[in-house]
Amino acid sequence: MSRPLRTLVLVASLCTAGNALACGEGIFRMGGGLRYQGYLAPTPAEILVYDTSRAPPRERALVYRGLVRAGHRLTIAHDDAELARALEMQRYDVVIAASAEVEQAAAAAAPADAAAPKWLRVVADVAAVAQAGAAQGDALVAADAGVGRYLRLVDRLVGR
Q1: Is residue 117 within 8 Å of 93, Cβ to Cβ?
Q2: Which of 18, 86, 127, 154 is the one with CA 20 to 30 A from 118?
Q3: Are 119 and 102 in contact (CB under 8 A)?
């Protein structure tokens, strides 16, 4: 192949390659096949979970893992003493507890003030969510809800 012809082929290939990558279009197309990897919380929260079971069921463990992956800092208290100690030692944005356990947990909580944590009450099922009602500033979630529901409620409680 002659030198002018090689030069012409080189220039044509450079022009073609330059058009394909204009404005990052090639990079955008490359990322189009990637799967959604996860959610990152706009405001990471300090979350205290009051869970009396030492080995939570698989679904609950997935929720806890999802909260941590979203950027929240999670502490789990397994009994009233651990709950009281945790609330004394650190300020939490949200406390997650089963509805039946909230009264016990609330007794151990710090006095209600502006820095008091918001409560995310876990109720038995969706029908109970409608019947239970939540105190102002608190929220309700069904026990069988997925991690997405927990993430939305935590974001709402911390002010997003």
Answers
A1: yes
A2: 127
A3: yes
- Write down the CATH superfamily of domain 46-157: Response regulator (3.40.50.2300)
Tally of CB atoms within 10 A around 101: 16
Maximum alpha-carbon separation in the chain:
90
Distances (CA, A) of 52 to 47, 57, 104, 142, 153: 16, 12, 12, 17, 22
Q: Which of 141, 129, 137, 140 is nearest to 159 (CA)?
A: 137
Q: How far apart are CA 37 and CA 96, in angstroms?
A: 25
**Torsion angle in degrees (nearest 10) through CA of 68, 69, 71, 76:** 0
Q: Which pTM does this prediction carry?
A: 0.67
Are 105 and 139 within 8 A, CB to CB? no
